Amino acid sequence: MVIMARKVLIADPDKSAGTGLGEHLKRAGFTPIVVDTGERVFEAAREELPALIILEAIFNEPTGFEICKRLQTDYATAHLPILMLSEQAEYIDRVL
Predict the structure, then answer these.
(1) Is 8 within 8 Å of 54 (Cβ atoms)?
(2) SS3 state at 70
(3) Which residues fall within 8 angstroms of residue 83, CB to CB, at 6 or more apart?
(4) In the predicted model, what is the mean pLDDT of residues 53-67?
(5) Residue 32, strand partner residues
(6) C-alpha torsion sign, points 13, 60, 58, 96
(7) Residue 53: which residues within 8 A CB-CB, separation 6 or more?
(8) Bridge partners, 11 (sequence order)
(9) Among 9, 13, 44, 76, which one has the highest count of C-beta atoms within 10 angstroms of its own C-beta?
(10) What is the CA radius of gyration of the chain?
(11) What is the model's pTM?
(12) Max CA-CA distance within the chain?
């Protein structure tokens, strides 16, 4: 029986950070897909339908929060789980 690795979409404007995380996930048996622009997040999410999206909150335009909202309102991607990462430690950032 062949078990296919589950895809994880890593969206980080710092592609080197996303690639590093991707290497860890690859060793754990996942297939990482690393993107570094907001528009590419939407494209990859719709094309790949990953098991999980790891999304950095710090994107310029659109912001990580806007990307998250758009993914959640798109019929094709609304079911995908999203894990948001942020270096921001302010209370309001955690609430958002």
Answers:
(1) yes
(2) helix
(3) 52, 53, 54, 55
(4) 89
(5) 8
(6) negative
(7) 8, 9, 11, 41, 45, 71, 80, 81, 82, 83
(8) 35, 55
(9) 9
(10) 13
(11) 0.85
(12) 47
- Tokens at residue 40, please? 């590419």
Q: H/E/C letters for each residue in 14-62? A: CHHHHHHHHHHHHHCCCEEEEECCHHHHHHHHHHHCCCEEEEECCCCCC
pLDDT at 2: 44
Structure-token pair, residue 73 = 């309102």
Sheet holding 7-11, edge to edge: 31-35, 7-11, 52-56, 82-85
Tallying the residues shown for the chain, one arrives at 96
**CA-wise closest residue to 14 among 35, 32, 33, 30:** 35
54-80: burial string, b at 16+ Cβ within 10 Å, e else: bbbbebeebebeebbeebeeeeebeeb
- 70 residue type, one letter: R
pLDDT of residue 92: 59
Mean pLDDT across the chain, nearest whole number? Answer: 87
Contact present, 52 and 83 (Cβ < 8 Å): yes
